[in-house]
Specification:
The complex is a heterodimer of chains A (153) and B (750).
Chain A (H helix, E strand, L loop, with lengths): L1 H9 L2 H13 L2 H32 L2 H27 L4 H25 L12 H23 L1
Helix pairs in contact in A: 1-3, 2-3, 4-5, 5-6
Chain B lengths: L1 H9 L5 H21 L3 H5 L8 H15 L1 H5 L2 E2 L8 E2 L7 H15 L6 H27 L5 H11 L1 H4 L10 H21 L2 H17 L3 H17 L5 H19 L7 H4 L4 H22 L3 H28 L7 H7 L3 H5 L1 H4 L9 H8 L2 H14 L3 H19 L4 H24 L4 H13 L10 H10 L3 H29 L8 E4 L5 E4 L1 H12 L6 E2 L5 H8 L12 H12 L2 H10 L4 E5 L10 H15 L24 H5 L1 H7 L12 E2 L4 E2 L10 E6 L5 E6 L9 H8 L20
Parallel strand pairs in B: 5-6
Antiparallel strand pairs in B: 1-2, 3-4, 6-10, 7-8, 9-10
Helix pairs in contact in B: 2-7, 2-8, 4-6, 4-28, 6-7, 7-8, 7-10, 7-23, 8-23, 10-11, 10-13, 11-13, 12-15, 12-22, 13-15, 15-16, 21-23, 22-23, 23-26, 27-28, 29-30, 29-31
């Protein structure tokens, strides 16, 4: 999900840049190739995103999707907390910090679990089986929640 | 030790069990050596706490053991910083006290009731054994040779650079902090090698423990992000880096915020911003890598790279903006003075006045680290030769720590572990190269190779051998034994050096002063405890003692009396007040002392014995610190003679002679000598014939060798006169002729 959003954010900017710089300087064929390329990128910006999304939906295992949904949920919760803090103010600062860092920490730990259980990363983590990764995840989360509960007073 | 390590080589072929047993025996021996080399002062003198700071730690530990953990956690100490008090639970690092309290209760549960003082005295040696073990583990992660870890362990066990802060009786934060430092680094290396969240979480837990133990945790907070940042810049980012660093940061930061003294600092202060920045950077990079794996377009990649650079610079700009606008606290003076080395001397004299905060001289490196210091660069070079993730860590650590230890003497302590590790790596490489040749096969091979081509063989071996080979000649057995023999000799000399340094330089308690009589027997000067004991027994329970801040902790610990200032220099103005009272004339300082309810004033005077660390020698710092607050009333220039000399004899300026410190130090000192021969043995000055006169305070106690002098502040005069006038009247300084003249009178107001 997040991937798609970002891809959209980034891609629209280059065509403007490229066309702006290319028109005064370069001879015709070069311009053509550049513009065509950028047009390709421009056209494909939507398509790439859609293709990525399709690819993601198709290629990702069910468990990883579940993890991703949880991560998206954590992002939403964190953003909500932050917006609330910006609007209302941060008076019990430790409460805000512990709530916010609980989401951030849990997000990071979940991302670690996602990386470790991903089948493509097998070479990187030869000594860690998915079960071991999950146990590590539980261990890390327990510590995280202990600290957060302790810090929120 | 060296013999033992070589043994492990010789029996190396015999199988894992033998080697494991040898390893265990060697490690136990190393721990024993580490502990026993720290016991010189306990055996020579007695089992007491040594320096100034440990006295506070000891007092806090006693409080913890007596009152329990919760009382300790919110302990308001009203016996220090007299009018103010100190919120002790929120202004100390509780790790040390809690550790020894836990040991105390554990031993008690094992029906071994040990006095808390003995636990405090022997905590540092015990932890040094653990440090040696942690260094062993750490080095084993770095090096493939089996002996490097053992060598590093013994180096760490007996290196004087570490012993200086961990002898028995020095119950300071560093006692456990170095163990935690090395162990945290071990866990970090383990985490980044395996990419395991478990090791990352363990690293965070020990990092939290380290934060609770020592203010030097900032070193870890900046070193690990720097390591990761260097890895990223080298293009070595991998998902292992992401997993280990993010786990460490998320958990470690929360863990560090649990300590009340640290509080919100990891969010707010500049020292912690590098960790936060690298955390954010890793998120971005991780995300970009994720997207890149999905979209294999060249153009897209460059765009994303531009995106990362943009976001990074925006984040950096935001950080600068926040720092400038004051949301994030800038560097504290202590850290800032590490970068701008002239800063402390100009702006904060109290930081510059501590002798440990001076730059390190060259001999100190050789004195503290003997042969390790010249093996150290070679070890860093070795790390460059095969540069994997953990070797980068060693390089980064070495560069950073050697800079800091050059700036400040006390930071030699953080340099020592890495020096031991790198030196052990070099030495084990050398030994391995030259000892493995002993086997007949490689011998024949080398002989054959040399006979055949001479040079062909060289590139196969390590760089050092290729340098040595042409020097030594043809007979390789001789060359081998020469090199190994030389190294063994160096190691033996190292052991001798360490023992000598520990015994002579670092094992003297500053509480008792030892001197040798002509017949070689030991004479102990015990004035400090004599005077503190007098205070403890002969004064009211809540009599306030004013002394310079150096002695605050000792007075609190040994005399058990409230003090005005102590070694925790958190309130500069209060210290300057004491400095002003000490450096002004009696008329000025008496009201100050009355306002602060001072009952006794304590000065340290070494003039009779030649004890150079006395208050007259520290006097200029008092003047400087007071001048920083009241530049109109206290001026440093006034304490120098017109030629700019600092004198205490008849040439001394009037300001000097009228200052309270001068008067208290030299009061009645003339009476010890025949007339006209009063001599100050520290300054080497002949004192004026007429000693100073004290009006508003009176001598209460002077210790045997005149090292400590205690004065009692007089009460207000009964008739309401000034103390000067009253004393002058007492002395009979009435004018013979009754002056008829009327003095200038003023109107009575009330």
């Amino acid at each position: 999900m997040a991937a798609k959003r970002n891809a959209r954010d980034v891609t629209p900017s280059p065509p403007i840049n490229k066309s702006g710089t290319s028109t005064p300087t370069t001879p015709a064929p070069a311009v053509k190739t550049v513009t065509s390329k950028s047009k390709d990128a421009n056209l494909s910006a939507q398509e790439v995103a859609v293709a990525m999304w399709d690819n993601y939906v198709k290629a990702t295992p069910q468990r990883t999707k579940l993890i991703d949904v949880f991560m998206a949920f954590l992002v939403v919760v964190g953003v909500l907390q932050f917006v609330y803090c910006v609007i209302v103010g941060n008076y019990p600062f430790n409460a805000f910090l512990s709530g916010f860092s609980a989401t951030v920490g849990q997000f990071v730990l979940t991302a670690s679990l996602r990386i470790q259980t991903n089948a493509e990363n097998k070479a990187e983590f030869e000594s860690i089986s998915p079960e071991r990764a999950f146990a590590d995840y539980v261990f890390g989360s327990l510590i995280l929640h202990f600290f957060c509960v302790n810090f929120i007073n | 030790m060296t013999v033992a390590t070589q043994n492990s080589y010789l029996t190396g072929a015999k199988g894992r069990n033998t080697r494991g047993l040898l390893r265990l025996v060697i490690l136990c021996t190393i721990a024993a050596a580490a502990v026993s080399s720290r016991l010189f002062s306990v055996i020579r003198f007695e089992s007491i706490i040594h320096e100034f700071d440990p006295w506070f730690n000891f007092r806090a530990t006693k409080y913890l053991v007596a009152n329990g953990f919760y009382d300790f956690w919110d302990w308001f100490d009203d016996r220090t910083w007299h009018p103010l008090g100190r919120v002790t639970g929120g202004t100390l690092y509780p790790g040390l006290m809690v550790t020894s309290g836990a040991i105390y209760h554990a031993l008690k549960a094992l029906t071994l009731p040990v006095d808390i003082r003995n636990i405090c005295v022997l905590l540092a040696p015990a932890f040094s054994g653990l440090t040696a073990f942690a260094t062993y583990l750490f080095t084993n992660e770095m090096s493939t040779t089996p002996s490097a870890g053992l060598l590093a362990a013994i180096f760490m066990g007996i290196a004087p650079g570490y012993i200086s802060r961990s002898v028995a009786g020095s119950y300071d934060n560093e006692a456990i902090a170095i163990f935690l430092l090395v162990f945290t680094f071990y866990l970090w290396i383990k985490a980044i090698k395996l990419g395991s969240a478990f090791w990352g979480a363990l690293c965070a837990l020990f990092y939290g423990y380290m934060v609770s133990a020592w203010g030097g945790y900032v070193f870890i907070t900046n070193l690990i992000p720097l390591h990761v940042f260097v890895l990223v810049c080298m293009g070595r980012f991998s998902s292992r880096v992401y997993v280990s660093y993010c786990t460490w940061y998320a958990l470690g930061t929360l863990a560090s915020m649990q300590i009340p003294f640290v509080g919100f600092l990891p969010i707010r202060s500049s020292e912690h911003m590098s960790a936060l920045g690298v955390f954010g950077l890793l998120q971005l990079i991780g995300f970009v890598e994720f997207v890149r794996s999905g979209v294999p377009s060249k153009q897209f990649q460059t765009l994303l790279r531009g995106f990362v650079v943009l976001v990074f610079s925006v984040a950096l700009g935001g950080l600068v903006l926040l720092t400038v606008s004051g949301v994030i606290a800038p560097w504290t003076g202590r850290f800032y003075s590490l970068w701008d080395t002239g800063y402390a001397k100009i702006h904060i004299p109290i930081i510059a006045s501590v002798s440990e905060h001076q730059p390190t001289a060259w001999p100190a490196f050789f004195f503290d680290l003997n042969l390790l210091i010249w093996l150290f660069p070679a070890g860093v070079y070795l790390c460059f030769l095969k540069l994997s993730d953990e070797q980068v860590f060693v390089v980064v650590y070495s560069i950073l720590a050697s800079y800091f230890s050059g700036v400040m003497v006390r930071l030699m302590l953080t340099l020592t572990p890495i020096v031991c590790v790198t030196a052990a790596m070099v030495l084990s490489t050398i030994l391995e190269t030259y000892l493995s040749m002993k086997s007949p096969k490689s011998d024949a091979e080398s002989v054959a190779a040399e006979a055949a081509a001479g040079k062909k063989f060289v590139p196969n071996k390590g760089g050092l051998r290729s340098m040595r080979n042409p020097l030594v000649g043809i007979y390789t057995v001789v060359s081998k034994s020469t090199v190994v023999g030389a190294m063994t000799l160096y190691l033996l000399v190292f052991v001798l050096h360490c023992t000598w340094v520990t015994s002579n330089a670092y094992s003297s308690p500053s509480v008792v002063l030892a001197s040798k009589l002509p017949d070689g027997s030991q004479h102990i000067i015990d004035d400090y405890r004599e005077a503190y004991q007098w205070l403890r027994q002969n004064t009211k329970e809540d009599a306030k003692v004013m002394a310079w801040w150096d002695y605050g902790y000792q007075i609190g610990g040994m005399a058990d009396r409230p003090t005005l200032v102590d070694n925790n220099t958190w309130n500069n103005t209060h210290i300057a007040t004491v400095g002003k009272a000490m450096s002004s004339s009696e008329e000025v300082s008496y009201p100050i002392m009355r306002q602060h309810e001072v009952d006794y004033v304590l000065v340290v005077f070494g003039g009779l014995l030649g004890y150079s660390g006395d208050d007259i020698n520290k006097f200029l710092w008092m003047v400087r610190i007071a001048e920083g607050i009241w530049p109109e009333e206290v001026k440093e220039r006034d304490f120098f003679t017109p030629r700019g000399e600092y004198k205490v004899d008849h040439e001394a300026t009037d300001t000097m002679k009228n200052s309270l410190m001068y008067k208290m130090s030299y009061y009645n000192y003339n009476g010890l000598f025949p007339p006209g021969q009063a001599q100050d043995r520290v300054r080497g000055a002949k004192l004026p014939d007429v000693g100073p006169v004290l009006n508003s305070i009176e001598e209460a106690y002077t210790s045997e060798n005149w090292i400590i002098r205690i004065y009692k502040v007089k009460d207000l005069d009964n008739v309401g006169r000034e103390h000067g006038a009253a004393a002058s009247f007492e002395r009979g300084n009435k004018k013979k002729k009754a002056a008829k003249k009327r003095g200038p009178k003023v109107l009575r107001v009330e």
